[in-house]
Amino acid sequence: MQPTVLYESTWLLAVHKPAGLLVEKSPYYPSVEAWAETYVAQQTRKPFIGIIHRLDRSVSGVLLLAKKKAALKDLNAQFANRQVQKIYLALVEKVPPAMTGTLTHWLRKDLQLKKAFVFDKPVADSVECRLDYKMLEPTQTGYLLEIQLHTGKFHQIRAQLAAIDCPIVGDEKYGAMLPYHLGSIALHAWKLSFREPLTQEKMTIEAPSPFQN
Protein backbone atom coordinates (compact mmCIF):
# COMPACT_ATOMS: atom_id res chain seq x y z
CA MET A 1 0.00 0.00 0.00
CA GLN A 2 1.99 2.92 -1.37
CA PRO A 3 1.17 6.31 -2.90
CA THR A 4 1.44 6.82 -6.65
CA VAL A 5 3.28 9.92 -7.90
CA LEU A 6 0.96 12.13 -9.98
CA TYR A 7 3.25 15.16 -10.40
CA GLU A 8 6.71 16.17 -9.25
CA SER A 9 8.91 19.25 -9.49
CA THR A 10 11.89 20.51 -7.50
CA TRP A 11 9.45 22.20 -5.10
CA LEU A 12 6.40 19.96 -5.05
CA LEU A 13 5.25 16.35 -4.90
CA ALA A 14 1.63 15.35 -5.64
CA VAL A 15 0.59 11.78 -4.96
CA HIS A 16 -2.48 9.57 -5.12
CA LYS A 17 -2.98 8.42 -1.53
CA PRO A 18 -4.68 5.04 -1.20
CA ALA A 19 -7.43 4.67 1.38
CA GLY A 20 -6.17 3.11 4.61
CA LEU A 21 -2.84 4.97 4.60
CA LEU A 22 -2.14 7.71 7.14
CA VAL A 23 -0.88 11.09 5.95
CA GLU A 24 1.36 11.99 8.92
CA LYS A 25 4.00 9.74 10.43
CA SER A 26 3.00 7.30 13.15
CA PRO A 27 5.10 4.79 15.12
CA TYR A 28 2.38 2.19 14.59
CA TYR A 29 1.16 2.53 10.99
CA PRO A 30 2.61 3.29 7.54
CA SER A 31 2.16 6.84 6.29
CA VAL A 32 2.55 9.01 3.21
CA GLU A 33 4.98 11.25 5.09
CA ALA A 34 7.35 8.37 5.92
CA TRP A 35 7.15 7.04 2.36
CA ALA A 36 7.83 10.52 0.92
CA GLU A 37 10.87 11.08 3.12
CA THR A 38 12.38 7.84 1.84
CA TYR A 39 11.45 8.69 -1.75
CA VAL A 40 12.96 12.19 -1.66
CA ALA A 41 16.06 10.97 0.20
CA GLN A 42 17.01 9.14 -2.99
CA GLN A 43 17.27 12.52 -4.73
CA THR A 44 19.03 14.72 -2.15
CA ARG A 45 21.16 14.47 0.96
CA LYS A 46 18.88 16.76 2.93
CA PRO A 47 15.30 15.75 2.15
CA PHE A 48 12.47 18.02 3.26
CA ILE A 49 8.81 17.04 3.30
CA GLY A 50 6.16 19.53 4.40
CA ILE A 51 2.57 18.46 5.04
CA ILE A 52 0.36 21.04 3.29
CA HIS A 53 -3.07 19.52 3.88
CA ARG A 54 -4.55 16.24 5.09
CA LEU A 55 -6.92 13.49 4.06
CA ASP A 56 -8.61 11.14 6.49
CA ARG A 57 -6.99 7.72 6.69
CA SER A 58 -10.09 6.11 5.16
CA VAL A 59 -10.15 8.53 2.17
CA SER A 60 -8.24 8.20 -1.12
CA GLY A 61 -7.12 10.82 -3.60
CA VAL A 62 -4.84 13.76 -4.38
CA LEU A 63 -2.40 14.82 -1.67
CA LEU A 64 0.16 17.63 -2.02
CA LEU A 65 3.54 17.59 -0.29
CA ALA A 66 6.12 20.38 -0.27
CA LYS A 67 9.77 19.58 -1.02
CA LYS A 68 10.94 23.09 -0.09
CA LYS A 69 10.08 25.33 2.86
CA ALA A 70 9.19 28.14 0.47
CA ALA A 71 6.68 25.87 -1.28
CA LEU A 72 5.13 24.92 2.06
CA LYS A 73 4.71 28.59 2.99
CA ASP A 74 3.22 29.49 -0.40
CA LEU A 75 0.73 26.63 -0.48
CA ASN A 76 -0.24 27.04 3.17
CA ALA A 77 -1.21 30.62 2.27
CA GLN A 78 -3.22 29.45 -0.75
CA PHE A 79 -5.18 27.00 1.40
CA ALA A 80 -5.69 29.55 4.18
CA ASN A 81 -6.96 32.16 1.69
CA ARG A 82 -9.26 29.62 0.00
CA GLN A 83 -7.49 29.94 -3.32
CA VAL A 84 -7.37 26.16 -3.82
CA GLN A 85 -10.27 24.42 -5.54
CA LYS A 86 -11.05 21.01 -4.04
CA ILE A 87 -13.29 18.57 -5.91
CA TYR A 88 -14.30 15.27 -4.32
CA LEU A 89 -16.34 12.27 -5.42
CA ALA A 90 -18.58 10.43 -2.96
CA LEU A 91 -20.85 7.42 -3.19
CA VAL A 92 -23.81 7.96 -0.88
CA GLU A 93 -26.47 5.50 0.22
CA LYS A 94 -29.55 7.55 -0.65
CA VAL A 95 -30.68 9.98 -3.33
CA PRO A 96 -30.02 13.58 -2.18
CA PRO A 97 -33.02 15.92 -1.74
CA ALA A 98 -32.11 17.75 -4.99
CA MET A 99 -29.90 17.00 -7.97
CA THR A 100 -27.68 19.97 -7.05
CA GLY A 101 -27.38 22.01 -3.90
CA THR A 102 -25.31 24.00 -1.43
CA LEU A 103 -24.94 22.78 2.14
CA THR A 104 -24.10 25.29 4.87
CA HIS A 105 -23.75 24.19 8.48
CA TRP A 106 -21.89 25.04 11.65
CA LEU A 107 -19.52 22.28 12.62
CA ARG A 108 -18.26 21.36 16.06
CA LYS A 109 -15.45 18.85 16.49
CA ASP A 110 -15.69 16.40 19.38
CA LEU A 111 -12.12 15.46 20.25
CA GLN A 112 -13.14 12.66 22.61
CA LEU A 113 -15.38 10.93 20.08
CA LYS A 114 -13.18 11.93 17.10
CA LYS A 115 -16.33 12.97 15.29
CA ALA A 116 -17.86 16.12 13.82
CA PHE A 117 -21.37 17.34 14.59
CA VAL A 118 -23.11 19.85 12.34
CA PHE A 119 -25.90 22.30 13.16
CA ASP A 120 -28.21 24.57 11.16
CA LYS A 121 -27.30 27.55 13.35
CA PRO A 122 -24.13 28.66 15.16
CA VAL A 123 -23.49 26.92 18.48
CA ALA A 124 -20.67 27.19 21.00
CA ASP A 125 -17.24 26.29 19.58
CA SER A 126 -18.60 25.81 16.06
CA VAL A 127 -17.25 27.00 12.71
CA GLU A 128 -19.11 27.58 9.47
CA CYS A 129 -18.64 25.00 6.73
CA ARG A 130 -19.96 24.94 3.17
CA LEU A 131 -19.93 22.70 0.11
CA ASP A 132 -21.69 22.40 -3.25
CA TYR A 133 -22.78 19.05 -4.62
CA LYS A 134 -24.33 17.65 -7.77
CA MET A 135 -25.48 14.13 -8.49
CA LEU A 136 -23.64 12.51 -11.40
CA GLU A 137 -25.22 9.06 -11.69
CA PRO A 138 -26.64 6.11 -9.80
CA THR A 139 -24.39 3.05 -9.50
CA GLN A 140 -24.81 -0.52 -8.28
CA THR A 141 -23.48 0.47 -4.86
CA GLY A 142 -24.88 3.98 -4.34
CA TYR A 143 -25.40 7.42 -5.85
CA LEU A 144 -22.32 9.23 -7.14
CA LEU A 145 -21.94 12.87 -6.12
CA GLU A 146 -19.40 15.48 -7.23
CA ILE A 147 -18.56 17.81 -4.36
CA GLN A 148 -16.81 21.18 -4.41
CA LEU A 149 -15.46 21.87 -0.96
CA HIS A 150 -15.35 25.56 0.02
CA THR A 151 -14.06 25.02 3.56
CA GLY A 152 -11.84 22.22 4.78
CA LYS A 153 -13.05 21.30 8.25
CA PHE A 154 -12.65 18.06 10.20
CA HIS A 155 -14.85 15.31 8.66
CA GLN A 156 -16.85 18.07 6.98
CA ILE A 157 -18.08 16.19 3.90
CA ARG A 158 -18.91 13.10 5.94
CA ALA A 159 -20.90 15.03 8.55
CA GLN A 160 -22.70 17.33 6.11
CA LEU A 161 -23.85 14.52 3.81
CA ALA A 162 -25.02 12.49 6.81
CA ALA A 163 -26.99 15.54 7.97
CA ILE A 164 -29.12 15.39 4.79
CA ASP A 165 -29.62 11.63 5.26
CA CYS A 166 -27.04 10.73 2.60
CA PRO A 167 -24.24 9.00 4.51
CA ILE A 168 -21.20 7.94 2.50
CA VAL A 169 -21.10 4.22 1.72
CA GLY A 170 -18.98 2.45 4.31
CA ASP A 171 -18.94 5.38 6.76
CA GLU A 172 -20.40 3.63 9.81
CA LYS A 173 -19.32 6.47 12.11
CA TYR A 174 -21.82 8.74 10.36
CA GLY A 175 -24.67 6.27 10.03
CA ALA A 176 -23.90 4.28 6.88
CA MET A 177 -25.45 0.83 6.64
CA LEU A 178 -23.88 -0.37 3.37
CA PRO A 179 -20.35 -1.87 3.51
CA TYR A 180 -17.36 -0.69 1.48
CA HIS A 181 -13.76 -1.85 1.21
CA LEU A 182 -12.12 -2.70 4.53
CA GLY A 183 -10.44 0.34 6.10
CA SER A 184 -11.95 2.82 3.66
CA ILE A 185 -15.08 4.79 2.85
CA ALA A 186 -16.44 5.75 -0.59
CA LEU A 187 -14.95 9.26 -0.56
CA HIS A 188 -12.22 10.32 -2.99
CA ALA A 189 -10.26 13.58 -3.33
CA TRP A 190 -10.57 13.76 -7.12
CA LYS A 191 -9.12 17.09 -8.30
CA LEU A 192 -7.04 19.85 -6.75
CA SER A 193 -6.42 23.18 -8.52
CA PHE A 194 -3.84 25.68 -7.26
CA ARG A 195 -0.92 27.88 -8.30
CA GLU A 196 2.36 26.02 -8.72
CA PRO A 197 4.54 27.70 -6.06
CA LEU A 198 7.64 28.08 -8.22
CA THR A 199 6.11 29.21 -11.54
CA GLN A 200 2.83 30.62 -10.11
CA GLU A 201 1.00 28.99 -13.02
CA LYS A 202 -2.50 27.57 -12.41
CA MET A 203 -2.53 23.78 -12.46
CA THR A 204 -4.90 20.94 -11.69
CA ILE A 205 -3.89 17.54 -10.34
CA GLU A 206 -6.34 14.64 -10.75
CA ALA A 207 -6.35 11.22 -9.09
CA PRO A 208 -8.27 8.65 -11.17
CA SER A 209 -11.73 7.95 -9.83
CA PRO A 210 -12.29 4.56 -8.20
CA PHE A 211 -16.00 4.84 -9.04
CA GLN A 212 -15.97 5.49 -12.81
CA ASN A 213 -14.28 4.05 -15.89
Describe the overall structure.
- With 213 residues, the chain is mainly beta.
- Helices cover 14% and strands 36% of the residues.
- The protein is built from three helices and eleven strands; from the N terminus they run E-E-H-E-E-H-E-E-E-E-E-H-E-E.
- Strands 1, 2, 3, 4, 5, 6, 7, 8, 9, 10 and 11 form an eleven-stranded mixed sheet that branches.
- Strand 10 and strand 11 (202-206) form a beta hairpin.
- The radius of gyration is 17 Å and the shape is globular.
- The two termini are 22 Å apart.
- The model has no long low-confidence stretch (mean pLDDT 95).
Instruction: Profile the largest sheet.
Output: 11 strands, mixed
Query: Treating each run of at least 4 consecutive H or I residues as one helix, how many helices?
Result: 3
**Termini distance?**
22 Å
State the helicity in percent bands.
10-25%
DSSP strand tally: 11
Shape designation = globular
Poorly predicted ranges (pLDDT <50, ≥5 residues)?
none
- As a percent range, the share of strand residues is 35-45%
The value of Rg in angstroms is 17 Å
Structural class: mainly beta
How confident overall, as mean pLDDT?
95
Oligomer: single chain
Order of helices and strands: EEHEEHEEEEEHEE
